[in-house]
Amino acid sequence: MADRPLLYDLSYGQLQALLVGWGEPRFRADQLWRWLYASLADGWEQMVNLPAGLRQRLAAETELTPLTSMACQESANGQTRKLLFRLRDGETIESVLMRYTDRRTACISTQVGCGMGCLFCATGQGGLVRNLSAGEIVGQVTYLARQVQEAEPRQRGGTGQAHPIGNVVLMGMGEPLANYAATLQAIETLADPRGYNLGARRFTLSTVGLVPGIRRLAKEALPINLAVSLHAADDGLRDRLVPINRRYPLAELMAAVRDYVDRTKRRVSIEYALVDGINDAPEQAYELARLVEGLLCHVNLIPLNPTCGSQWRPSPRERVDAFRTVLEAASVPTTVRMRRGIDIEAGCGQLRRRQAASDS
Ligand code: SAH
Ligand code: SF4
Questions:
Q1: pLDDT, tens digit, for every residue of 326-347?
Q2: Quick one: which atom of ligand 1 is closest to the CA of 306?
Q3: Among the bound ligands, the one closest to the CA of 114
Q4: Is 114 one of the annotated active-site residues of the chain?
């Protein structure tokens, strides 16, 4: 790993302290911050209002580029693009760009691998390698935003929106609440009005259910969206599918989620991957409806995205429909989401695992 500090890793205050320490006037931090996050500059030569001497020193003593693209796959319909990035220490992560008619969404990673070991998840099968730094999380968004700008220069994201990437979902590789500080710093950097200026409501953080992290997040005055990956409504099954349930069982998890909603007044998403014959019976839907009764929530049913090496299959259409019908009859707002980009293995961790297999 290069030991020069990564500029994206610095908060605004830290960037200002660095430049003031070099004898620069304070407004230089504002100029540089704008280059990084409003103009999305990826080369020193672009920063034309910075003195040449300062640019040289920045180039010599800091690092601008957190990651480089190693592979890219586009779905057949062109709406989903998946990128494999190499980090400065050679580790790899994935990000996905999703194009909808009115917006562009980046699905980004927060860790290299993941230590949570969920049985159906390609990332979980490889274990945790390391946390990403704040700058490595931010860098995925700025990279994808540049790609959108290049592909759709005039319309700015093709949508008339101010941001080439208008939504950020922390649903790539890793468990964001297991890398709490870097994840929060990355959100703050991207939300900073002096730079990328993406409102906190444009972020969705998906967690496997780390209770202390949910409780801590509830106390931040940050109106981001929370998604909880439930996948089972009884402890016996959830212990198997999502092993961290043994540490934070459903009663504790749901109490924390209810407190989160009470404090933030924000609707939570409940993610539920439907696995054929495992968690998709009507009785299990009743159980889920009971678990979320009275909770301000929205259930997303996602037919499992099969990963290589697993026997599990996505629930067939009829079982998905029956499951949804039970929830809707219980007045639980429910959407069935087809995973984007199944044909490019855009499920979490799949491209990276394939690359690793072909490297060895
Ligand atoms: N660690 C966090 C965020 C990353 S995983 C979490 O677990 O929430 C993002 C989402 O993808 C989670 O809801 C996870 O349960 C889901 N997921 C992982 N593997 C999947 C698969 N094979 N099919 C469908 N969803 C999957
Ligand atoms: Fe980690 Fe989320 Fe995958 Fe579980 S589903 S192993 S928490 S990335």
A1: 999 999 999 999 766 555 555 5
A2: 22
A3: 2
A4: no
Distances (CA, A) of 359 to 109, 124, 171: 21, 19, 25
Are the CB atoms for 108 and 168 separated by under 8 Å? yes
Task: Single out the residue of 114, 161, 170, 115 nearest to residue 138, CA to CA.
Answer: 170
* Residue among 283, 344, 110 at smallest CA distance from 208: 110
Ligand 1 binding pocket (C-beta < 6 A) is: 114, 120-121, 171, 175, 206-208, 229, 271, 273, 302, 304-305, 307, 347-348
**Axis-axis angle for helices 27-37, 12-21 (nearest 10):** 130
Q: Is the CB of 320 under 6 A from ligand 2?
A: no
275-297: pLDDT as tens digits? 999 999 999 999 999 999 999 99
Catalytic: which of 24, 63, 94, 136? Answer: 94
pTM of the full predicted structure?
Answer: 0.94
Percentage of residues in the chain having pLDDT higher than 70: 91
**CB 123 near ligand 2, within 6 Å:** yes
